[in-house]
DNA sequence: CTTGAAAGCGATAACAC
DNA sequence: GTGTTATCGCTTTCAAG
């Protein structure tokens, strides 16, 4: 089960995910509280794992990682050994930014960031040489309309 | 292309995206330099937009946002007016974490985070009542195998 | 590039409400 | 539990060697 999150926690989380460089004082002011209680709550949320990694979002395009693919994968193999190997391969490859196991006829979806189409092909060839895959469809992104890490906290149920 | 990124910049970016709460001193030590040059470079990278938002990653499951859908969208409409309205609708909805316009027969892909299947349906109904959509396939994630915001900086070209 | 220094902040404790 | 105040040492930021 989750953790008890009340309205104040939610405000703190919202302030933090919007800008994690804010000082304790600023967050306290924003949420209408003061330093100590805010600090205690942040510590608890961190310990509970609700607050995870603190990071900086980089501009992939500016860094020359100009191609983004969504990869739909079907497999005929469903034994534990194959799956374990497949997951390990995905986790080991840094160009795989997301990987999900799906319900339905498509088994997996990946999001892959690379320099260009050639780099994607190199990734693809390497992957299929490591594990057997039945069917792959690559969807090339033409335009990133939206990309956010901000969770919709308004929709989070309040802990009793 | 945008900015000159050298090996030192890349190390700094790697250190920062891995843990943005690190102090300047620590980063300087990690990358084998000292405070001021590191600080100057970070400032420039920020101004150039290479370094963007500083944030904290929250655990969606722990917050009760337990369902994640990838939504494949086909449309028959391609005029500017329709597209503008569609993009505005996506940007306005906080449960849409990602949206891409694609090449190929599928026109758009969305990543949507909600509490449960019912909340997804509410989102879906609201969306199709706002803009006309030809065909929608929702892929439900059963397991998040990997989800990272860390870009593969090893693969970033130097200079240029 | 390095030193250094002023201002600010994080992390906690003591105490009152 | 929350708010106030005060503390110490570290950090950011920037000027000048």
List keywords for this structure.
homodimer; 160 residues; alpha+beta; Arc Repressor Mutant, subunit A; Alpha-Beta Plaits; 2 domains; 5 helices; 5 strands; DNA-binding; transcription (chains A, B); transcription regulation (chains A, B)
Task: Give a brief description.
Two copies of one chain form a homodimer. With 160 residues, chain A is α+β, with helices and mostly antiparallel strands.
Write the layout of secondary structure elements.
2 copies of one chain form a homodimer.
Chain A: H1 7-18, H2 24-31, H3 35-47, E1 51-58, E2 67-74, H4 80-92, E3 96-102, E4 108-114, H5 117-130, E5 135-147
Antiparallel strand pairs in A: 2-4, 2-5, 3-4
The structure holds a DNA duplex (17 and 17 nucleotides).
